[in-house]
Amino acid sequence: MASHRTTARGILLLLLIGVFTGTADAGVPQVTAFPVVGNVTYTDDFGDPRPQGPHEGNDIMSVRHQPAVAFVAGRVEKWTGSGSYGTCMLYLHAKNGITYVYIHLNNDLGPDNDNKGGCKNGVAWAKGLDNGDHVKRGELVGFVGDSGDANGIQPHLHFEVRKPSGRAIDPFTYLNRSKQLLFPRPRPGLGAMTLTLKGAKVIARTDSTIKVRTKRVVVEPLGLSYVNVRKVTFAVPPETQVARKGSSGFSTIDVSAAKVGERVRVTTVTFAPTWTTQKAPAETLTTAKILLLG
Question: Coil, strand or helix: which one is 68?
Fold first, then answer.
């Protein structure tokens, strides 16, 4: 009987652990979009000492103008802080009461820290984004920068997760399990889109596919160009225009003639963006043009 009681207590303890774990995790969906598109670094710096008190988020170190996207679907609220340069911020209010906070959004017009752009649409926030707008998970909401008290240091996104009570919780676990995206989703009404990958390299190819390591991604009609290094396998239909640039000009070839390691520029067919295409699993995206550069 003693062993039975011990087992029962053990089961109860496991159930309680599950309850409390679920409570701590309540409100944050399992499938979310990583809030910055492209290459970043971050650590669990939640609670680290800061001049204004313990750090209430995680700093996602990135580069100026890198796209910031909606972590989940929700309603946006733009905010500008006081100070010499002002802090460009965004609150993303989820339907369940959780709020995600984006701080130090861009206020620079050029590639350097010029502080000439201010907290405006097309600079700090996505073009056409208004207070109260509802955005989809993975939708473009803004751009990484160094506004506010981050002025002059490495551009980064200070990202917070706040419970309905307003209490900040550590975002690290949620960031780790979120999905890294190839491109941000445009605002509704912009229609279909096209990707062009510049500076990519061929990793593998078959008669109907090409696998590349991306470098710079250009997104139309958003007019975005940003660094995003990852591996993507594209479907290559027979109608794809495949050419190689040589000393005497361009020659038409078959994709199977592509050489592993050579530079390549890939342009996709025009497509309607979805959550699946944003994650870009193998052969989800289809090529329209492939230019091999040797």
Answer: strand
